[in-house]
Each structure stands twice: as C-alpha cells, then as structure tokens.
Amino acid sequence: MSASKRVAVVGVGTMGSQAAWRLAARGAEVVGYDRYAPGHDRSAAGGETRIFRSAHFEDSRYVPLLKHADALWEELQRETGRELRSLTGCLLMGPTEHQQMATVLKSIADHGLDHEVLDAESLAKRFPQFRIEDGDAAVLDRHAGFIRPELTVQSAARRAEQLGARIHRYTPVREIVPVAGGVEIRTDAGTESFDTAVVTVGPWVNDLLPDLPWDVDIRRLINAWYVPTTDTWFGQERPAFIRTAPTHCYGLPSPDGVSVKLGLSRALHRPAGDPNQLDRTVQPEELEIFTDLIGRYMPDLNPDPTRLSVYMEGYTESSRPLVGPLPGAENVVLLAGFSGHGFKLSPAFGDIAADLALDGTSPQPIDFISTLDRTEA
Ligand SMILES: Cc1cc2nc3c(=O)[nH]c(=O)nc-3n(C[C@H](O)[C@H](O)[C@H](O)COP(=O)(O)OP(=O)(O)OC[C@H]3O[C@@H](n4cnc5c(N)ncnc54)[C@H](O)[C@@H]3O)c2cc1C
C-alpha cells in the first residue's frame, strides 16, 4: 500500500465522509469537495434517522459487508465519542411466502443472526401499535435499530479532518479529468492534481459523469412524520419497522420520542429530474398512500402529518450499487446507485473505497457489486 497517495474525495456526503475518514486513517493525503457542506439535507442523507439492520432482505450477499460495517460503526463511535447508532431492533412484517421474508429468514439461518420470530398473538401483545394480516409473519432483527445520518456524516468528516484531511465546502466539482498516472479535479477555483479520485456524488452522478455506461435512476423520496394519538404508542422497545408487501414501506420512531417517520419504496416515488431543481413541495395527493397505510397497519397514528421532507436517491436496475473503477479511467473509483439501502453499509463502503483508491483491490467480497464486468444496463 502507498500511504502517501494524494486522493480526492468528490462529494462528502454519506459515502464520501466515510471514505475520507478511512483514507485519512491510513495516512493518505485527502482533499474532499462538496457542493454544500457535510451533513446537509439536500441529497440522500437527512431526516434524522436511517435503519440499520443485520438481516438483509434484498440479498444475503450483503451480510458479510454488514458485519464489516458493524465493526466500523463501533470504531467511528469510539473515535468520535458520539452515539451515531442505537440498537433498538427492527421489526420486519409481511406475508410469509413473500421473497423478501424468505431472504431474511435465509440470512438469519445462514449467518446465525440474533432474531425472534413472532406469531400474530405475540406481536399483538408486544407491539400493539402494529396490525398484521392473515398469512403475515413478523421477525424481530435484534442487532438492528437506527442511525443518525446528519450526525454521522458530520462526525466522519470531522474525524477525517482531525486526521489531516482538507475539505472544500460549497465547492462543486465541475469536471474530473483522467491524465497519465493520475487525475485532475476542476472547480470554479481552479484545478488540483491527484493520484486517485473517489467519486461519491450520490444523486448528481449522471450530472457529473454523463457518459456513465449504466443507468442510475434518480428518484425523489418523501418522508412524512406522524404523531401518535396515545402516549403509549412507542412502548418500551421502539424498534424501526418494515412492511414488505403488499405495499413496501418502513418507519422509525423519532429519536426525540415525539413522532414516527414513514417512508415508501422505490416504485412509489417519482423521478427527481434535475438534482439542482428538486421539487421539495409535497402535494396533498402524494399523502394519500401514507394515510391508507396508517389506516390499515398503524391506526393509532394521527394521519395529519406534522413534517414532510423530500430527498433524492440513485437506483440501479438491479438495486445493487456500482463500486469500483470508472470504465476508461483506472484512477477514478466510483461509488454510486445505493438504491435506498446504502446508509447502514456506509462505513464499509468508505473502507472499500480506501482499499480501491490505495491498493487497487479490496479484500471484501464485492464481486456482486463491482463495476468490473458489470453487464446490466
Ligand atoms: C429518504 C431516504 C431514506 C433512506 N433510508 C435508508 C435506511 O433506512 N437505511 C439505509 O441503509 N439506507 C437508506 N437510504 C439510502 C441511503 O441514505 C443512501 O444510499 C446514501 O445516503 C447514499 O449516499 P451517497 O454518498 O451516494 O449520496 P449523498 O449522501 O447524497 O452524498 C452525495 C454528496 O455529493 C455532493 N455532491 C454532489 N455533486 C457534487 C459535485 N459536483 N461536487 C462536489 N460535491 C458534490 C452532495 O452535496 C452530497 O453531499 C435512504 C435514502 C433516502 C433518500
């Protein structure tokens, strides 16, 4: 490994802040650039909470990466002295025969994950705030809970700076130019030269890299916050929760104990359009689906939202992110298309970015998300 490499991190958001921390921790000379400042809410991070879970329902190949992320979450908390993650559990509810439930049960069995399977009677007794339907199962992933996204991005960026990284705030990168043996980063302030660049610009990926050979579909995601009608709604355990079908949705109790945040899956969100012109106004008709879900599954929430926020996220066709060298530019490492499930894994992706930028390869099992030999459109 060449620890003295000069590495640019383009986009110091969820993945970029972690990459800057991991690179600086290994002694690289790190320069970060962000169009805003670490911890802002105009992109994929924000809204106070993100779910952390060990039982991955998208694909059990993520479980080893989750274990790596888990260790790094602990390390980042130790190094910063901040509580970035609270392990309050995550309750997964949905039809027993649904593919996501089957993947979760497989993840649990294959990797010996800490969990409980609840029947309808025990669910009603222990978590009376939720209703389930005939044929539903409920699984409580115990090594799960919520992450504080704004605090995490700021803490990782700050830790990187303490370790020597420099971060240029309010400095959008206009162009990344591969040159012999390195890469040039162009901003309105001028051009800087690096050995390698890590590109983590989230929803701006098509904007900055218009010739990307894969589709990254940028969606506009709504989060809505609701207040319970009873003081007992939250109970003692306060798990995050996910309903797999017929409408995939998720929720998290707010850390302040006042409200519950609800969100929906990819298919229920419209394209974001130009990321610089994101429509942050939520129309009343966009709330109908939330009202319907509350009526069916969480009838003790008041269906009048107390807060609405809009974010963006990039989705690949397979929902697997793109991690690895940019085609035709071996000194540019791309991390993009986290498809609604990247936050929990972000310290692992930051570490993998550092592996790839410094060593050209990673010991982590990333073949299934690699940009190398990627065939999907
Ligand atoms: C509403 C919502 C809920 C989610 N819930 C969960 C969850 O519960 N659990 C989970 O694991 N994941 C969740 N996700 C997914 C997760 O948040 C994302 O996968 C992750 O935040 C993506 O990180 P990123 O680094 O790619 O993008 P971002 O965090 O958006 O970072 C991109 C950064 O690049 C900067 N930038 C852009 N263009 C430039 C440029 N030209 N020059 C310099 N800087 C630039 C931006 O300002 C930004 O800071 C959710 C996402 C959303 C939107």
TrEMBL record:
This is N-methyl-L-tryptophan oxidase. Keywords: FAD, Flavoprotein, Oxidoreductase. Its EC number is 1.5.3.2. The keyword Oxidoreductase applies. Its cofactor is FAD. Transmembrane segments: none annotated. GO terms for molecular function: flavin adenine dinucleotide binding; N-methyl-L-amino-acid oxidase activity; sarcosine oxidase activity. Pfam families: DAO (PF01266). Residues 6-356 form the FAD dependent oxidoreductase domain. The keyword Oxidoreductase applies. The gene is solA.
